[in-house]
């Protein structure tokens, strides 16, 4: 009986190992297939930017960006205290925003019709120094940042930067890349049966996205300078904005490589070099 039981267990163990081997192969095949689908979806999706004329990896049409931005705007505004009670500040913000949008064709002469619906909203939050733009055009700045700005040129620097985020369709690009990372993370789980693999993919992906974000921020700084100058604002207002951000951070920001934004100090030097390179310094005081 003991001998028979031992042999039975041996056959059972052998069968079990064979099952595990087959199961592993199947998981790897499924995981590999899902990874290929995610990569194929990412690399085959492209759209031509109607303003810059550049081809971008985006799976969302402009009308979808507008719809998403309009749907998200009320919730985003509520998270920062809602619309500011500063009616005069709101009017100034809208005036500068419209002026910058009107200058888009001068900076991008190849631009077609602007498909996005720009709006500019001052938010009640007087603690959070922030400005941001949603896909499709809704653009915001908090009272905390607005109150730190001293000139219209500085406000134009903030808004010019945010408008370029919309023009360059950065939100749609980031969402498309996030879909890729989520697809690869799902493939890792399916292929290994372990969530640790997905965590590694997500960790690496997050750092890749941080770097991608820093590139976007630099692009918006430099393109925003052109937009400011075309609208008649002093590009050096952007330098002052960075000084304000540096002061607001109080030196408490983490290392640049672990941040979604370049350091304000580094941005100042980059902006000054670009102003000189483009010969925009002589635009100071044109208004």
UniProtKB/TrEMBL annotation:
Alphabetical GO CC annotations of the entry are:
membrane
What GO biological process terms are annotated to this protein in UniProt? proteolysis involved in protein catabolic process
Q: Report the domain of life of the source organism.
A: Bacteria
Output the Gene Ontology terms for molecular function: metal ion binding; metalloendopeptidase activity
- Coiled-coil ranges from the UniProt annotation: none
* Comment on bound cofactor: Binds 1 zinc ion per subunit.
Into which family does the record put it? Belongs to the peptidase M48 family.
- Protein name per UniProt: Peptidase M48 family protein
Supply the CDD domains for this chain.
M48C_Oma1_like
Keywords in alphabetical order? Hydrolase, Metal-binding, Metalloprotease, Protease, Zinc
Pfam families found in the cross-reference section: Peptidase_M48
InterPro entries, A to Z: Mito/Outer_Membr_Metalloprot (IPR051156), Peptidase_M48 (IPR001915)
- Peptidase M48 domain ranges (all copies): 115-274
What cofactors are annotated for this protein? Zn(2+)
């Amino acid at each position: 009986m003991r001998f028979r039981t031992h042999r039975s267990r041996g056959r059972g163990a052998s069968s079990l190992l064979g099952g595990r081997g087959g199961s592993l192969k199947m998981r790897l095949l499924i995981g590999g297939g899902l990874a290929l689908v995610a990569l194929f979806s990412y690399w085959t999706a492209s759209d031509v930017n109607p303003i810059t004329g550049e081809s971008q990896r985006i799976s969302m049409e402009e009308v979808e960006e507008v719809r998403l931005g309009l749907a998200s705007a009320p919730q985003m505004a509520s998270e920062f205290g809602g619309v500011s009670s500063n009616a005069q500040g709101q009017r100034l913000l809208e005036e500068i925003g419209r002026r910058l949008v009107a200058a888009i064709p001068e900076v991008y002469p190849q631009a077609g019709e602007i498909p996005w619906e720009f709006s500019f909203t001052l938010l009640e939050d007087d603690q959070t120094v922030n400005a941001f733009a949603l896909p499709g055009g809704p653009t915001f700045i908090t009272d905390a940042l607005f109150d730190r700005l001293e000139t219209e040129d500085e406000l134009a620097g903030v808004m010019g930067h945010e408008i370029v985020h919309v023009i360059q369709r950065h939100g749609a690009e980031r969402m498309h890349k996030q879909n890729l990372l989520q697809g690869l993370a799902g493939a890792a789980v399916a292929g290994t049966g372990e969530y640790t693999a997905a965590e590694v993919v997500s960790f690496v992906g997050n750092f890749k996205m941080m770097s991608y974000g820093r590139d976007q921020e630099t692009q918006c700084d430099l393109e925003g300078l052109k937009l400011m100058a075309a609208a008649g604002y002093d590009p050096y207002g952007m330098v002052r904005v960075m000084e304000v951000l540096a002061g607001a951070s109080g030196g408490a920001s983490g290392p640049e490589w672990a941040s979604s934004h370049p350091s304000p100090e580094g941005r100042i030097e980059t902006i000054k070099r670009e102003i000189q390179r483009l010969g925009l310094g002589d635009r100071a005081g044109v208004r």
